[in-house]
Amino acid sequence: MKRIHAPAGYVLLAGDLAAFLLFTYYGKLAHGLPATASGIMETLAPFLLAWIVVALLLHPYRHQSWEKAGRQLLNTLLMWTLAAPIGLVIRSLWLGTPLTWLFAAVAYFIMLAFLLAWRIPFAVVCALIQRRSQSR
Q1: Are 8 and 39 in contact (CB under 8 A)?
Q2: Which of 45, 52, 55, 133 has its CA 20 to 30 A from that of 66?
Q3: Distance of alpha carbon 100 from alpha carbon 41, whole angstroms
């Protein structure tokens, strides 16, 4: 049977999207809000839009950005550190609600945890695959 390998950048993008969806879903549940598709998308949109804007600037899905585990994790930290405040401002303007420091801090650290919880294993697997291919 022939194995089909998705390019790692696409896998990384899919994992990031899943992390954003899980973050939003968890936030809805944690606040006792209905986790409907439209509610999730309404909450997700500002943060995802900010992530996309930063991704267009920093190119995190190119091979050079994820080929080394340390670079990938630093890139994740940099991207979310830039995207989080943008997303928070978009969310505040969109909903017409004031931005609170507590919400900003909680959203920043929890989403960072969601991203790293998936990206650390991804980085380890990429490093193992690269090491294995170099030893051949």
Answers
A1: no
A2: 45
A3: 21
Phi, psi of 66 (to 5 degrees): -120, 0
pLDDT tens string 45-80: 999 999 999 999 998 888 777 777 788 889 999 999
pTM of the model: 0.87
DSSP string, the chain: -------HHHHHHHHHHHHHHHHHHHHHHHTT----HHHHHHHHHHHHHHHHHHHHHH-TTSHHHHSSHHHHHHHHHHHHHHHHHHHHHHHHHHHT----HHHHHHHHHHHHHHHHHHHHHHHHHHHHHHHHHHT-
- Angstrom CA distances, 135 to 66, 68, 127, 131, stand at 20, 16, 12, 6
